[in-house]
Design a protein that fits this description.
CATH architecture of the largest domain: Alpha-Beta Complex
CATH superfamily of the largest domain: DNA methylase specificity domains
Helix content: 25-40%
Strand content: 15-25%
CATH topology of the largest domain: Adenine-n6-DNA-methyltransferase TaqI, Chain A, domain 2
Low-confidence stretches: 432-448
CATH class of the largest domain: Alpha Beta
Number of strands: 22
């Protein structure tokens, strides 16, 4: 990756308590000097619907696999335009804000801020600046509320926050440099994500073979009568899921009840969503994603936890191995049984009647020991690669912070060679977005 380490010639004390110094020729003015709050409403609600999250900033919802609430009409939603700053008032403390590059509509509960005069800030500069960890810490300090999930960043508080303002030409240099870095980082992350995909495919092939055909390749087979399965060992049973486990949907929980940290984890259809102060289950369970494009996902949960309504909680009967059962469910590809509606979903009553191949309990245990041993080295490599991606994310965060706060001078930087634009958003790649992310538009955000 390209790197510069130049410092500016002279510095001055910054107004932010967390910023010791900024370049002496930079300005630092409260946001109200450059921005005003706007409350322009859409008459018909036909404009592009924009999503505001801590992962990807302000992006068209059509570009995302959003499984959240969708209103019958968006008339009366707030209009925003390119260059506007849009803040999810209820999730600013998580960094759910950004600079819009589109004309579109957002929730009436959000804050939309527009420049008094064009040409003050270069396109893209504020998107980098306002989403740094240091500024997110500032939003927390300026927000009002008794606990994190209730914090609100109101307009008067945002408009009093000092914004760093380099000369306009310098802002363009900063954006060009960071865009170039982002493209190289995206390329690196893409290659590592591809490696993880290949390793997971290899892992699932090993597990799938074991749970659907067993370990003895010479054992007599019989037709299963299940299209996706084919033949199975002749001594295995074929049982419906309702005879293998107790299955029921989790319990409703709002985003206001979910904290960034807490005593008990909250699991949705795609895994961990956050934490809360009470629990619905205790023990070991398999969780099946119930709603959204990724319904049918399989996760495991143990101890005390809250299972949300977006998950089906499966509790195998005592004579069945939990890990074997979870991997059989994964092999069944339950997503194929989702029902098409406003958003895809799995009906518990439907999947309860699906059949699965069932070996004797001692063979289940042997199968689990086999694939855990066979895939252990793959898991080590996957975990190491995921750690590398996390380090790359940390590097990017620090680099952005250093550049937009003037700790690194990029005015003389030039790319060695032309760098092609990547098709996929750097934020999607770097942050490994999923549909259940905190700070997304959902029912609670749209109608506070």
């Amino acid at each position: 990756m390209m790197e510069v380490s130049n410092r500016y010639g002279s510095y001055q004390k910054g107004k932010h308590p967390w910023l010791d110094q900024i370049p002496s020729h930079w300005l630092e003015k409260r946001a109200k000097v450059s921005f005003r709050e706007v409350d322009e409403k859409s008459a018909e609600g036909n404009e592009e619907l924009l999503s505001v999250s801590h992962m990807t900033g302000v992006t068209p919802r059509s570009q995302k696999n959003v499984t959240m609430f969708k209103a019958a009409s968006y008339a009366g939603h707030k209009l925003c335009r390119p260059g506007d700053i849009v803040i999810n008032t209820m999730w600013a403390w998580m960094g759910a804000l950004g600079e819009s590059h589109h004309t579109g509509i957002v929730s009436p509960a959000y804050g939309v801020y527009r420049l008094h005069r064009e040409g003050t800030f270069a396109p893209g500069y504020l998107d980098y600046l306002l989403r740094t960890r240091a500024y997110i810490s500032e939003y927390i300090c300026q927000s009002t509320g008794i606990r994190s999930s209730r914090l609100r960043l109101y307009p008067d508080k945002f408009l009093r926050i000092p914004l760093l303002q380099p000369p306009l030409e310098e802002q363009h240099s900063i954006v060009s440099y960071l865009h170039a870095q982002d493209r190289q980082i995206a390329k690196l992350i893409r290659s590592k994500r591809r490696l993880i995909e290949l390793l997971n495919e290899q892992k699932q092939t090993t597990i799938h073979r074991a749970v659907t055909r067993g370990l003895n390749l010479d054992v007599p087979l019989k037709p299963s009568g299940i299209d996706w399965l084919g033949d199975v060992p002749a001594h295995w049973s074929l049982l419906s899921l309702k005879n293998l486990a107790r299955l029921r949907s989790g319990d409703s929980i709002t985003s206001f009840q979910i904290e960034e940290s807490g005593e008990f984890p909250v699991y949705g259809g795609n895994g961990l969503r956050g934490y809360t102060n009470s629990y619905t289950h205790q023990g070991e369970y398999v969780l099946i994603g119930r709603q959204g494009a990724l319904c049918g996902n399989i996760n495991y949960a143990n101890g005390k936890f809250w299972a949300s309504e977006h998950a089906v909680v499966a509790n195998p009967l005592t004579k069945y191995n939990l890990r074997w059962f979870g991997e059989v469910l994964r092999a069944m590809n339950l997503n194929q049984y989702s029902q098409s509606a406003a958003q895809p979903g799995l009906a518990v009553e439907r999947i309860k009647n699906l059949c699965a191949p069932v070996p004797p309990i001692d063979e289940q245990d042997t199968i689990v020991r086999f694939f855990e041993t066979e895939t252990a080295s793959l898991d080590i490599t996957i975990n190491a690669t995921e750690h590398e991606i996390a380090l790359i994310r940390e590097y990017r965060d620090r680099l952005i912070s250093d550049v937009v706060t003037g700790q690194i001078d990029v005015r003389g930087w030039q790319p060695a060679n032309p760098i092609p634009e990547d098709e996929e958003s750097i934020d999607t790649l770097v942050n490994n977005e999923d549909d259940s992310e905190i700070g997304e538009d959902d029912a609670d955000d749209e109608h506070p």
